[in-house]
Amino acid sequence: MKTVLTIKEIYEILSEQKPVSLRSVERRAQSEGWLYLEGKGRGKNGIVRKYMVIRLPVDVRNVIAVFFKKAKEVVKVEPQITAPVKGKKPVKKVLRVQKEKAYLKTELAKAYVKSIDSAKYGQKAKAKKIFFMSYNLGEAGTFPDIYREVGETNEKTLSAWKTKLENNNWDPECLVDNRGYYLKGKREVTKQQAEVILTLVRSQYNTPGKPKLELIRQCVAVMREKDIETNLSETTYLRWLKEWIEYNYDQWVFWRHGEKGLNDKVIPPLSRDYDKLEVGDILVADGHVLNFEMINPYTGKPKRMMLVAFSDFKTGFICGWEIMPTENIDSISVALRRSILRLGKMPKCVYMDNGRAFKATYFTGVKNFNQTKLPGLYRKLGIAVMTAKPYHGQAKPIERFFRTFGELERMSPTFVGECINNKPVWKNRGEKLHRLLHERTTRGFTPTLEDSHIVIGKWLDMWCRRKQGPESKLAGKTPLEIFEKGVGTGVNPLELRALMLVEETRKIKRRGIRLFKKWYNHKYLYGRTHKAIVYYDLQNRDSILVYDAKDEQFICEAVKQIGVHPAANILGTEAEQAELERQLESQESLKKQTVASTREIVKKQYIPEIRKRVQDSGFDINGNQEVKQIPEKKKELTKDDIEKIKSEVKALEKMQDDGEVIEIDDYEPTCEPEDINSEIDKMSDTDKYEKLIEMDSLGVPLTDEYKAFIIYFEKTSEYKDNKKYFEERRCDLITINQIKSG
Hey, what CATH topology would domain 501-560 get? Predict the structure, then answer.
């Protein structure tokens, strides 16, 4: 296909498609300003106008392409050159790009001559200077189209072009660049050499950071091992590889960067229509590790914390966010609650990451996220769930916000860099001066969690009022301006809190319910050991709601137990002493509750049943018969037993029984030491151990069997699980004994 055509040739081509006159083609060329170059020919004054095909209108170019039976012409980079024969010059095959460039050089030379000739006498040097200054401005200069192809030039080069054109009757083809002509096209990579190169390209040795020249050197070494001729230089092979990459970029990226690189660099992204969404329809959730340090409130040390944010899909407005050391359920639930309250309505869908915390059972209701049988938090709130594809970070619009958020991160005095390549200078090794300047400038200041919340809140307030570009999805408006138009009427915070309660199953134990490494208890849990359903709020862990796991009946609201001072009456404050007194009274009250209920059962049920059985057997209990009672052998109490009983009596001095205070003188022991031992043997291992340490702390001598049992029990897993409780119990008993004995 020709690159330049005369007006007559264009007329002949166009007339093949439909009838047209030569005059009409000339008028159209003149009215539309078709770009032409003047060259030697049989026209007026020996000059003919040749129109560049590439600069013609689209419809004309299409007709010309069809005429030459080529819709698109691919110009080969490796032209075939006929080998030179002795006494004969090789046939030159000039490239289209070279010829077009020669025509542009000719036009520039003509403009140069015209500007010099039009200058006044004595002003030609100034005219030359002005001409080159205005031309070399590039896109802002006098000939931007020519500058784009030819590039910067000077007076010496342009004068040489002018002289050459004058000697060749201003034929543009004399300026065709033929330098290195006989070397062009000599890059002949054989099929075997190409296979070796492409084999290494498609292997694991083609790592992302490896330079292409290093890959070529390995290919040359493989060629030599396989006795393949390596007659070309490494640079030649490198040029061949670069040309192959231009036409097979997808293969190059896939083998060098994998599927993620293919998704990020080659495969076209989806085109989304944001006008089909309303504000609050979709919330996008993701986590971002902050690029500056702050004080971790849990450790007191500087740390890069995690920012969890929910943004509106339509506007990009950040509805809610939270900062935590890690991306966990707590941070996500806080951010979600704040987002719903700020939005003023329930979102229809949450578009989230594939992170473990976002797909936790608390949110989805199932351990396997692909199942949908059990309702989680999202389903409880009536929110649909949509997840992004793995390794498709560009699918979440909030990722674009995190790049903009870098403006704030880079202003922080503790900025550590977004990656290893753009760390602050003072963070690099050996930069003592910059480190000293940084310390003196910031004075070692590290923001706290509260400081970071305030600064981020102010920056977000400024960012949401920033106008976006006219070509963006907001069409020149601010995120806040569009967001405020779609805000709902509001959500009841108490109802939202009730819907966001976490549900777990726990077993009621002696000390209550174990949760968050703390014990929660209530008097209604006393005497229960069954499983219970527990509901709690992640933001308020002072109390929990307890339901029966069997019939789902509400039991109580258990509160978090407060630990007492081991020696509250001696070393504790008044509040700690009052707490100790309250807990002791609670224990005695619970004990009294059990004993009172037992007495009632014995009186109303047990005794009448026994008497009825005796009477049915033929004995008359209500008669006048005298029943001989066998005297029991009473063992005399030892001094230790008496002291033990007195210590127990002192503990009951302040307790009331049927409205009367028990006095020490009125108390009589209800059982003998042998009876106590028999009762201990009937207890479970845990209760038996607790009773023995109670006796030991009160000074009651223990038998060798009981001492051996204490040693055995302290090696069991049950003791290790409740070791802290038993140690506190022993300390309390010793303290009480010391106080009473003193």
Answer: SH3 type barrels. (2.30.30)
